[in-house]
Amino acid sequence: MERVKTDNALVCITGAMGSGKSVVSRCLRLDGWPVYDCDLEARRLMESDPTMRAAIEGILGPDCYGSDGCLDRRRVASLIFNSDELRMAVNSVVHAAVRRDILSWRDLNGSPLSFVETAIPVTSGITGIVDRIWLVEAPEPVRVRRVMARNGFDIDEIRRRILAQEPEWEALETCSYVDRIVNDDSCSVIGRISNLIDGLCNK
Fold this sequence. Notes:
Layout: E1 9-15, H1 21-30, E2 35-37, H2 38-48, H3 50-60, H4 73-80, H5 84-109, E3 113-117, E4 132-137, H6 140-151, H7 155-172, E5 178-182, H8 189-201
Parallel strand pairs: 1-3, 1-4, 2-3, 4-5
Helix pairs in contact: 2-3, 2-5, 3-5
């Protein structure tokens, strides 16, 4: 194993749609480990962090926030999905703020191990701040079945989304600090998590 600290280590939990990364996060929380949910925290920061809000308003205009101070997600979506330039600018602001928040959260929580759940570890730059990456994996038919049951998407939509995510996982193939967790319903995910934690804590 490489790139891991003995104290206050930060581990990224990631995986393709339907792989079960949220299952891994839930198991960790139940066992008392702190887990940072990037999707939830990014939404919080977009509304509560003054610096981030000012930056987003500078890119998209003040109308992207309502009179109640909340982000107008529908307006933001209409703007960024019609402009690669705007989307990249907003994402750059959000990803940088989330990375800073993760490190601050890690340093304050006092745990010997902290975990970060994200679907885009490479795009967000989170691979550059963590000590290990746990890649949750399952065969595509299993993932498709799970997403259909959970979200109600049709199979073509799911496969389009899976295809769009593939560059993210291909980029991880070159990382030497990736541990794999198979979640195909044939083996114990909890047992694998326990073994990985033991390996980190006994360094």
